[in-house]
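Q: What residues go here?
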């Protein structure tokens, strides 16, 4: 038997409504299916548990005592996407709820939920009818897809266990230091024909998750792509953990700019510049770094895009270290495996800085003492080897298109509402995106033109439009960003542009 969730508008509910709800549930159960066995959970549907973003940290003193705090903001776009995904899951199985209007309710009103872990559908429909007639706050009910981790968490396992029922026997969950008397919030139970009413301090196990369903796979994709912690968030967490001295005072807040694409423009000017010179004209340290990159990995100044894209990709998983805040900004180090032009992979330590209103900026890159590794870099599978020519450009384009198509499949766009219509448009804002090659006369641009792929830009450069089966701006941007990453790691300079339709 499936778990059934009953939803209510908390802003329309009264204190006594929970008693009315539980009475409605157990009257139907004791009459229709008294031999059932289940648990009851209650609480709010809190989408923000998945969508909070750390955007600031502070270390200082309050009333003479050391104090550490952090600022959390809500990712509204992600929350809207979760609301639509939750409603889609609610409507995928047996339900008595208006699925089209549910996302907007989840985003604009406080929603409470009471969930029964195992209940026959015919009994659930009886409870639904009773609640519909007795409570204005009642929204409806649905069968929870236990193969959907999002719905199972929000509508079941993140709720608070209230009681357990088994064959007319009720066990009410209380704190370990509670007395023997029935608590006031459970006195309603004495009015119903239970065979026994007991108190317990034991919480039931979470409702079991099944193998991911089709809806569940979509939820997993959504959480993995849009719910993962951003690099800038990990920098803030690391700042609190690694700054030395409990008395040091600082306050750092990040905005949208600091969450942008990292800047590696210093690579050709410094780390890979075998002619690097200090301001006073003396030989600079960049020469030694450039020499090591050439000797150990076969990477030269001409390969700065190849190296830079790997360093940027490494930020997505690497943990910041030696993080500190000073007059220059927030500085930290990251160590990642880097693929060389010579087929070798070695660890590279990078120094980064985030200044107010700017994305991460690469300060330096060098080899640590223990640089040998058996790991492969995160972009090793998108490097195209061989001599450049028609066959090379064909393989490069096909690989870029393959990676871009996968990026589209792995992304769920932010929904959009049009005034006057209750149902959201799941693909969000309409728009187009494209990758621009700055030189329309380059060998790759000429190959694209010969094969009728893309077109010359309105002013300059050569454009490769996003190839998707959708009008979604976000999906087009995901395609272009993934396509551009493959080009950059293979040494092709390019930019990504987009336009709302």
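A:
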């Amino acid at each position: 038997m499936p778990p059934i969730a009953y939803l209510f508008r908390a802003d329309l509910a009264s204190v006594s409504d929970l008693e009315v709800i539980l009475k409605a549930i157990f009257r139907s159960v004791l009459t229709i299916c008294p031999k059932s066995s289940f648990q009851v959970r209650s609480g709010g549907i809190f989408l923000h548990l998945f969508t909070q973003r750390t955007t600031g940290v502070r270390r200082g003193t309050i009333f003479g005592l050391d104090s550490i705090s952090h600022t959390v903001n809500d990712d509204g776009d992600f929350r809207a996407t979760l609301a639509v995904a939750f409603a889609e899951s609610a409507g995928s199985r047996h339900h008595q709820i208006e699925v089209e209007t549910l996302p907007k309710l989840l985003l604009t009103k406080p929603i409470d939920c009471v969930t029964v872990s195992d209940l026959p559908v015919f009994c659930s429909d009886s409870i639904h009818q009773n609640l519909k007639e007795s409570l204005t706050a009642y929204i409806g009910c649905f069968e929870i897809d236990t193969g959907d981790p999002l719905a199972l968490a929000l509508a079941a396992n993140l709720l608070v266990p209230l009681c357990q029922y088994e064959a007319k026997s009720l066990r009410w969950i209380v704190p370990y230091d509670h007395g023997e008397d029935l608590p006031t919030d459970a006195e309603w139970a004495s009015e119903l024909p239970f065979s026994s009413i007991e108190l317990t301090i034991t919480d039931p196990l979470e409702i079991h998750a099944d193998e991911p369903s089709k809806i569940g796979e979509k939820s997993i994709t959504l959480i993995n792509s849009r719910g993962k912690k951003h690099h800038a968030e990990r920098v803030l967490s690391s700042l609190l953990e690694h700054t030395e001295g409990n008395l040091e005072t600082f306050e750092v807040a990040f905005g949208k700019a600091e969450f942008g694409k990292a800047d590696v423009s210093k690579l050709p000017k410094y780390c890979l510049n075998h002619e690097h010179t200090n301001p006073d004209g003396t030989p600079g340290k960049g020469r030694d770094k450039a020499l090591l990159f050439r000797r150990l990995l076969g990477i030269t100044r001409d390969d700065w895009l190849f190296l830079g894209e790997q360093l940027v990709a490494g930020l997505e998983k690497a943990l910041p270290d030696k993080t500190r805040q000073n007059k220059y900004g927030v500085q930290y180090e990251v160590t990642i495996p880097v693929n060389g032009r010579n087929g070798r992979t070695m660890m590279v330590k990078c120094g980064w800085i985030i200044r107010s209103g700017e994305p991460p900026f690469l300060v330096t890159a060098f080899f640590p003492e223990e640089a040998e590794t058996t790991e492969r870099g995160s972009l090793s599978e998108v490097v195209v080897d061989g001599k450049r020519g028609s066959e090379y450009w064909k393989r490069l384009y096909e690989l870029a298109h393959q990676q871009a198509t996968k990026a589209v499949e792995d992304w769920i766009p932010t929904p959009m509402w049009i005034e006057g219509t209750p149902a959201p448009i799941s693909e969000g804002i309409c728009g187009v995106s494209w990758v621009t090659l700055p030189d329309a006369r380059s060998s790759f641009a000429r190959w694209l033109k010969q094969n009728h792929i893309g077109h010359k830009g309105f002013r300059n450069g050569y454009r490769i439009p996003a190839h998707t089966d959708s009008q979604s701006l976000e999906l087009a941007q995901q395609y272009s960003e993934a396509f551009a990453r493959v080009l950059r790691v293979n040494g092709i300079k390019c930019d990504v542009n987009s336009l709302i339709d």
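A: Context that may help when evaluating the design: The radius of gyration is 29 Å. The first strand starts at residue 4 and ends at 9.
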